[in-house]
Write a structure and sequence with these properties.
Elements lengths: L15 E7 L5 E3 L5 E6 L6 E10 L5 E10 L6 E8 L4 E3 L16 E11 L26 E10 L11 E15 L1
Length: about 180
């Protein structure tokens, strides 16, 4: 177990977080609001997955992440697919001025975290003649017939003793799930 202590780093830049399609630090593509988001088939667990990660600036290496995916069915409403909290140690990347968020020309950091692999339940699997997802029944509401809203909030590990020091950044993106990458 790793003991984490409150971060007291000071950054000239405001906190910023961006959702990305990510399977590694090298394969990291920011998600585009209104754009397609490829689902992946396979992996160790089988089935269909969203691969997601976050890129952060102006936050400490240890953050609290609140991540969620909601589905927007064709008939209306908003249904939660997944929501969870993590307290990860992120990967601090080499910092370059061109990576700084807009309006930031001072000291910043860039860190990434990517092991968010969200399994799509059988009721929402896409219709995909190329893969056998091993579900007992066909999908009730294929995810490819819906929009998905992905959200993340990153909060520094700074406010444990003094809440006024807490830095937080959020990002929400609405995407169109499309089938299918992977095996």
């Amino acid at each position: 177990m790793v003991k984490t202590e409150a971060c007291s780093d000071v950054f000239d830049c405001p906190p910023d977080v961006t959702l990305a399609f990510a399977t590694s630090n090298e394969d990291f593509t920011p998600m585009v609001d209104g754009g397609p988001q490829e689902l992946w088939f396979g992996g160790e667990q089988g089935g269909y997955h969203f691969f997601a990660g976050v890129e952060m600036h102006g936050l400490c290496d240890v953050v609290y992440l609140d991540f969620g995916i909601d589905l927007l069915p064709p008939g209306g409403g908003r249904e939660n697919l997944v929501r969870y909290n993590r307290h990860p140690l992120t990967i601090r990347c080499e910092t370059r001025p061109e990576w700084y968020p807009e309006g930031c020309d001072g000291d910043s950091t860039q860190q990434r975290w990517w092991p968010m692999q969200v399994i799509v339940p059988c009721d929402n699997h896409p219709v995909d003649p190329l893969h056998d997802a091993d579900c007992a029944e066909p999908p009730v509401e294929p995810i490819t017939d819906m929009e998905a809203i992905l959200t993340v909030t990153a909060t520094d590990h700074t406010g444990d003793s003094d809440p006024s020091l807490t830095r937080t950044a959020s990002h929400e993106v609405q995407v169109e799930p499309v089938c299918c990458g992977g095996e």
